[in-house]
Predict the 3D structure of the following.
Amino acid sequence: MKKINILKAIVDLLWIFSVPVVLIIIGISFTTFFIDLSDLSITINTLDINTNSSFSKILFAISSLNYLLLIVALYFFRKVLTNFVRIRVFEEVVISSFKKIGNLLTFSGFISLIISIIGTIYFEQKVSLEFGLNQHLVIICLGLFFLVLSEIFKIAENAKQENDLTI
């Protein structure tokens, strides 16, 4: 039980630090459309974004929204950990939160992969194919893992209900 409390403390700390960052990112995202920020150097996923063109501003806004998806997934993970600490493992809230986390992470992983490919083509004018493990694939796999975990918990909840009904 001590490990879950440590994990919850770490996730809560991440949440506390990410909330002000969300407000800053939303503010910068909107200001890029109205104010010239060409002096500001913005780097997302190792891509230096030039805020002079409208296409790069759109990519930056999409990347910001993608970051918000990760923060929402972190919120649902906090909900799951709160239920785990209270020893409410097979609640419907836990199962639905796992499914939401999985969908958010999978969607976010695909968005970041597409942004990375488009950004490399647009900003660096090169097309490259790299094999290996990158952050986008890890996020997609993590999202799929949470979706599988949701299904496993749903099966376990049904087995628990059947077990509670039998004498």
Remarks:
- Residues 2-165 form one domain.
- The chain has a mean pLDDT of 85.
